[in-house]
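User: I'm putting together notes for a lab meeting next week and I want to include a structural view of one of the chains we've been expressing. I don't have a solved structure, so I'd like a prediction I can at least talk through. The sequence is below, exactly as it appears in our construct file.
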Amino acid sequence: MTKYWNLFLPPNLLFAFVARLGVTVTLLAMIVLAGPALANADGNKLRIAYTEFPPAEYQNEQGEPAGFFTELTRKVAEEAGYEAEFIYLPVSRVYLYLKSGDIDLFPGLSEVPALKSEVLESWVNVYPTRLDAWHLESSEPLTHFNQLEGKTVIVIGGYTYGGLLSWLENSERIRLTEAPNSRAALEMLKLKRGDYILDYREMVEEILAQPSDRGVRGSEVRSRYSAWLYSLASPRAALLREAFDDAYLRLVSRGEAPPVRDFKADFVIPGFPEEHR
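Assistant: Thanks for the context. Below is the predicted structure for the 277-residue chain, given as structure tokens.
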């Protein structure tokens, strides 16, 4: 065979060709052998959304994901053998990406009507949260949802309240005004630019520090658990749920994660819209 190559190629070019051929074969072999490892590495990456919901999850001043739910999610992902890539998004975009499968999971609130049939919720309930109607002590506490009729309700920009916002916007008997954050909402309430604020207890308790805040009161509207929400557009949703639940329970058993706090997570104020329960 070599003599035929010699008819067409001088010895120096023939040597260079054979050497290059050897390098090519070696590179191909390396790619073939590395293929499963590379695929496995990509399969271990998770695109995890987070949003502005302090102190549970938020973007800090350095533009990094922060908050106790964010850190717990990172720890559980690592325990489960996954690499977390956190993506900061507004809530509306989170819901859209969960439906399309552009993100794998979202640490959020359970039982969101807009995500029904779109996500799998974790079996474990990570931490409780409750939505309150905040008011001045000179005003009546909210004991029935119908008390909002004829009132001005301050809502926080970017919140959907589990789909309740759309119902409120379509109501002809309730006026809405928007605040950019919880602190601004409290100031609007004290200036009587609204009768009630709809905001989560964890958020407001974190910032009730000013002397003038002493006159602010909260009454429970709805309580539920947070959860990890897995996109059903992903074929590995069920696998991720099992892996995360098992990893979380292992961390709890070792004392490296807080256990689930028991509370009445199904409270709903009388008169609350049935379709958003």
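A couple of points you could mention at the meeting. The longest helix spans residues 11-43. The CA atoms of residues 162 and 194 lie 21 Å apart.

User: Perfect, that's what I needed.
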